[in-house]
Every structure is written in structure tokens, then in C-alpha cells.
Amino acid sequence: MFPGVFYALLAGFLGAVASSSAKLSLGADYLKGVCETGLKTWGGEERKFRQADETTACDWLHIPLRLLCGGMLFTCNAVMWTFFAKALRYSSSSARATVTTTASNFISSAFLGQLIFGETHAVLWWVGISLTLSGLLVLHKSAPRDAQPTIAKKDE
């Protein structure tokens, strides 16, 4: 049972990383803003990075960063599906693997959203996550049923 839970948790985390990568690669100008803030912080004056046509390094640097995040999106999705398939293989039920992956994805998305984007969630969102985790706990504590019920033969 433990390998199935581990793979399901990892699949959920990778799904959250993939969605964060998608938000970074397709988001408006988030990476460009991060780049400009980084250059100001680490590089001193912004004028050091101005080119002849008055564009900053971030005007072109955000494009490879977005492509890198797009590549991370596809890579994390591929690895996530691999781990989810392994979770299904090693779990006693597909529902257990699915619920564990979903809960892990929600929680990882919350933490990554806070860490990367500074997002906050409403109390109702946390209530929903708590209910999901409670359902997960009930699902994990319940005893699995036999795969095939025994059939009683009639005496003739």
C-alpha cells in the first residue's frame, strides 16, 4: 500500500508543478516583472542593462524563460501520468489512488501558489480541502473488499 500512496502523492505534486509552469509560461508579464525586479536587485541600476535601442535584457530574456516553463509543463505532465499509473498499479483500489492524487494536487497547488505568485485562499477553499482530506482519511482507513464475492452453490 505504501508505494501506491507515495506515487499518488508524487503525481499530485507534479501536477501542481505542471499547472504552475503553465501559468508562468502563458501568464501575462509575470516572468518579465520577476526578471526586471531581479536585475534591479542584483544588478544595481537598470541602465547597465540597456541596449542601444533602449530595451532592457528582460524584454528578450522572458521569452526563453517562458519556453523553459512550457517545457517543464510537458515534462511534469508526462512524469505525473507515469507516477499516477504506478500509483494505480500499487494501490488496493483506483479510488484510493485518485483521491490521494487529487488531495496532493490541491495542497501542493495552494503552497506553490502562495510561494510563487503570492496567492491567498478564502476560508471556503480551506473548508473544501479539509473535507477532501477527511474523505481521504476515511477511504484509507476502510478495509478493502474482496475482488470477487464467493458464490454459494445450491445442494441438489
Automatic annotation (TrEMBL):
Protein name: Transmembrane protein 42
InterPro entries per record: EmrE-like, TMEM42
Segment forming the signal sequence: 1-19
Bilayer-spanning residue ranges: 63-85, 123-139
Keywords, ordered alphabetically: Membrane, Signal, Transmembrane, Transmembrane helix
SUPFAM superfamilies linked to this entry: Multidrug resistance efflux transporter EmrE
